[in-house]
Amino acid sequence: MKRTLALLLAICLLMGLTLCGCKKKKPVAEPTVTTQETTEEPTQATTVETKPKEVLYRHPLTGAPLESPWSGQVVAVMINNLKKAMPQKGISNADIFYEIEVEGDITRCLAVFSDLSKVDDIGPVRSARTAFNSVAVSYDAPLVHCGGSPGLALAGRYGSTADKIDNWEHIDQGSNGKYFYRDQDRINSGYAYEHTLFTTGEKLQQVVDAKGYNTPTEATYGLQFKDGATVSGEKAEEITIKFKGGKSTILKYDAATGRYNLNMHGTEHIDGNTGEAVTFKNVIAIYTKQWYHSDGMHKFYDTIGSGEGYAAMNGQIVPIKWSRESLRSPYIYTLADGTPLNLDVGTSYIALVGIKNPIAYK
């Protein structure tokens, strides 16, 4: 019996070991990798604010930014302003454009250029008057003209006294004819002869070089500029400058361009070179004492001294003061309280009007 029991236990043990050896092993599960979704926004590029480039130098007549100090020669040209002489040519290339009343209750103009290479035909060129002599000298500019008032402007006088401009630099067509020309198309069209004289930027550069006037200068001419400058004054979207003899000039503000459109003789003023309207960034009108020469015809102005006036830019106008110490000094403009007047960058229209003449605006 014992033997039988032992045999059975041995058989059971053997079967158990066999079953264990045949049992398949469970596959080992691969480790699970969990990807965590991020909720962070993509990193954006950092915006670096750059400061406006500092303007170290400016053009002395327009305030345009320059890489180095301005150096060059200013030239002033007498321009015929009669209605019958229109259109004028080249004036949209002038940095500053003056209008002053002369004899016969008409006005004449002075176009001040600092870069003759930018302008083609210029004119019609007309005769000089004492006030224009004086203004040209304030820019160290040779005056380009065709004759002048005898014994007065033609003699180099600049005011009511007998004093004359020392070393007067001027280019008179009478003795420099090859640098001027008569517009034959105008002559054929019936223009009066005095309305047909022109020159060009190239011709003027030639005569300036020939006379040795082209001496580089570094000047400010008394003007101060600021980008986008404006004045805290009254609205001035239309400015009317009435000259003593009854002639009126109107400047209309265009908000889209930030410039004043020049209106002469009752219509928009056009440059004959471009066929486009003549516009300005700044408008200045200064009161100056005005009186007649003993001949009862030619007019004198106090172009040296001080006085009052108005300046307009960007649709606003304010009272100003002007001063000029001597013939060789520039005009200085300030606000009524004496602080410097900053003009906006661009070209300027300047009128000299009799002290009692009104300047209207709206």
Give unreliable regions as ranges.
1-40
Helix content: 10-25%
| Secondary-structure element order, N to C | HEEEEEEHEEEHEHEEEEEEEEEEEEEEEE
Main sheet record: 11 strands, mixed
So how many helices? 4
Mean pLDDT: 88
Oligomer: single chain
Inertia-based shape = globular
Strand proportion: 25-35%
Rg, alpha carbons: 40 Å
* Separation of the first and last Cα atoms: 139 Å
Q: Would you count the extended β strands for me?
A: 26
Which structural class fits the helix and strand makeup?
mainly beta
What can you tell me about this protein's structure?
The protein is built from four helices and 26 strands. Strands 3, 4, 5, 7, 8, 12, 18, 21, 22, 23 and 25 form an eleven-stranded mixed β-sheet that branches. It starts with a helix and ends with a strand. With 362 residues, the protein is mainly beta. A hairpin with a 5-residue loop joins strand 13 and strand 14 (248-254). It has helices at 2-22, 130-137, 184-189, 201-210; strands spanning 57-58, 65-66, 75-79, 96-102, 106-113, 121-122, 143-145, 170-172, 181-182, 197-200, 224-226, 234-235, 238-242, 248-254, 259-264, 267-268, 279-280, 282-288, 290-292, 299-301, 305-313, 316-324, 332-335, 342-344, 348-354, 359-361. It is globular and about 60 Å long. The longest helix has 21 residues, at 2-22. It is 12% helix and 31% strand.
